[in-house]
Batch of 2 targets.
Target 1
Amino acid sequence: MSTIKLADYPTRPPRSTDREEIEKKTRKLIREIADLQELLYANRRYSLLVIFQGMDSSGKDGATHNVFKRCSPSGVSAYSFKKPTKLEMAHDFLWRVHQQVPEKGMIKIFNRSHYEDILIQRVHGWIDEGRVTHRIQSINAFEELLEYDNDTKVLKFYMHLSRERQREKLQERIDERDKNWKHNPNDWEEAKLWDRYMECYEDAINRSSVPWHIVPVDSRWYRDYAIAKVVAETLRSFEMDWPALTES
């Protein structure tokens, strides 16, 4: 397997991309995802875990809303992993994660995920490299357990944002009143550690047994298309059918 270098991947759409055409395709994909989600819920054989991981302001919330907005709330839910609570810190780092994985027939979206435990903690030196390696092995085993023992497909999206675009989005949180609530001064401090974060993301991606999808997110309209395309293709691959009427 070749080594992935994030610098080799674009953060913007291909130059020849027709925005109007892409947005038309995206709308069609979003409707299809809603139809397939209903079939998934009725079938109750598979489940889907969607992981959005990326730097601050990379569009995890927006992608969650836009791609799944036509789905039934009864079959889709999202969870945002924040600083561990005292109770969560008293357990292994995957304890809180396993409680949030989807049951059969459900789609679950992780806004950030268990990868925080080998990213922010590693960047700040809160864990050593030996612990990093052990956690990566545990994450791989955890995701393989979900996929091969529980028919839970794990889709992992790295939200590939440029440093310049992040600055723009963080500044918007200061300049635009309806985005002030998102502003966190600490985000600017974390942005100063950009190069180290890229190193840690690359290592996590390259040592993952379940592959990542690297999505260019500088243009949000293209981000939604790239994600919706993979989600729709994945749901189609389940080859589900409507459950037959059973005799009482």
Target 2
Amino acid sequence: MFKSLRRCFPVVGVLIACGCEHRTSTAPSLSEPGGRTMNTMTIESSGFAAGQPIPRKFTGDGSNVSPPLTWTAGPSGTQEYALIVDDPDAPTPQPWVHWVLYKLPAHTTSLPEGVAPAERVASPGGALQGKNSWGRIGYGGPEPPRGHGVHHYHFKVYALDTSLELPPGIDKDRLLKAIEGHVLAQGELVGTYQR
């Protein structure tokens, strides 16, 4: 059994008990709360590779600009997208929220570097931004406590089957409540940073 476990350790993903199978963020489907099956999408950045350090430019120690992102199109019926970036390694009761972006039009499958910190996004038109954990609108880059070790930043995109009726400036909790039951597909990209 120990030999079998040793073969598993290099595998990136979630190990299934008693075997070496693994599941990554590109698995064929996930289960949404309530039992609804949803597909997965791939989300990438030309600024950093999955599981790798986020360059200083995209952090609070650098220019503090949002990284460029691209994702595969959602399934048929996608009306719009939402994006949440958070840090579950933060020494806070809930993950520290770095970005809340929603009402991204269905034809949108990318974001440029440096989305301006405004409630209404000029491009793609119609998109809105909410508040991060600093209480500010828009993207806030990684700024983990010094000496706290490696933090993992989860960039999550959601394909929705509805057009959200939400004002600009909401927080992550309100967005999650609004999209509950409307997620057709989800993708996740994780980058790291430490100080």
